Amino acid sequence: MIPIHDSIPRVHTPYMLYTIIAVCFGIFLLERLLPVSQLTEFFYVYGVVPARFTDPVWAERMHFPSDAEYVFITHLFIHGGWVHLILNMWFLWIFGDNIEDVMGPLRFLFFYLTCGVVAILINIAFTPTSVTPVIGASGAIAGIMGAYFLLYPHARVLTLIPIVIIPFFFYLPAVFFLLLWVGIQLALGIAALSGHASTSVAWWAHTGGFICGILILPLFRKKNRCYYCKIPEGTPPVRPQLLTPKPSELPPPEE
After folding, report:
1. Confidence band of 231 (pLDDT split at 50, 70, 90)
2. Phi-psi region for residue 164, left (φ > 0), alpha (ψ -120 to 50) or beta?
3. Where does 2-249 sit in CATH, by number?
4. Smallest Cα–Cα separation from 92: which of 29, 159, 148?
5. CA 228, CA 231: separation in Å to the nearest integer?
6. Segment (H or E) for 3
7. What backbone torsions phi and psi does residue 134 show, to the nearest 5 degrees?
8. Which of 60, 65, 95, 158 has its CA 20 to 30 A from that of 225?
9. CA-CA distance, 231 to 154, in Å (whole number)?
10. Burial tier of 140 (Cβ tally within 10 Å: 0-12, 13-18, 19+)
11. Which of 228, 187, 210, 252 is nearest to 11 (CA)?
12. Which SS3 state, helix, strand or coil, does residue 195 take?
């Protein structure tokens, strides 16, 4: 289930969104220059290995640095392959511009990083003994999607759903798309705990990031900046000039 386009117009140029995407691509290209052995070490040093924080004896035996808090940020900009990178950046591109619209660049950056940190902490709580490094922006992007769920449930998302080998395209309500997405992450996270789903994906980071984005959104959004957000009356607020009807939309004069 891949989003292709959403119906919410972009108001401001999302400079921070562009910067995050550029940094992720830049780091990934640098990763490609490393030999396989050094790349694996890079993932372990700058990714988040849960056991590194829950089992100090093991971490010391494996010669991990003791002051490793930086990995809660660095892991968000590291990706393991082209598919991992492109899918993450595509989801960020689809949903992130409208969130930066309502926050501005700096608040958007801190919101993004906060969701990423909370997401990985939740993942550690559910997989404390894992010795596999967690890398990728998925937790932070899930937070962006949680904020989108709260602000734009009325949006419509053009969605690609491949069935067998045939691609189908549907316009789905954003509220349905996002609830289905987070529901799948939650179900697979529960299944992974019992060994019935892959443990190579940080399902709990996805779920935790989504919930975090919903909960902390009020701390980061700016007043009077959400031009197309859902409001209690059910009408998305827009800029005043957008309320001016086109001549073709005016009612005919009464005779």
Report:
1. low
2. left
3. 1.20.1540.10
4. 148
5. 9
6. strand 2-6
7. -100, 125
8. 158
9. 10
10. buried
11. 228
12. coil
68-123 per-position pLDDT tens digit: 889 999 999 999 999 999 999 999 999 999 999 999 999 999 999 999 999 999 99
d(CA 125, CA 127): 6
Task: Enter the tokens of residue 192.
Answer: 């992974």
How many of the other CB atoms lie within 10 Å of CB of 97? 22
3-state secondary structure of 91: helix
Tell me the domain boundaries of the chain: 2-249
89-101 pLDDT tens trace: 999 999 999 999 9
Q: What are 138's two structure tokens?
A: 């998925």
Structure tokens at 162: 């491949």
C-alpha distance from residue 111 to each of 62, 221, 247 (Å): 33, 9, 42
Residue type (1 letter), 94: I
Residue that the structure tokens 């798309």 belong to: 177
Helix (H, G, I), strand (E, B) or coil at 46: helix
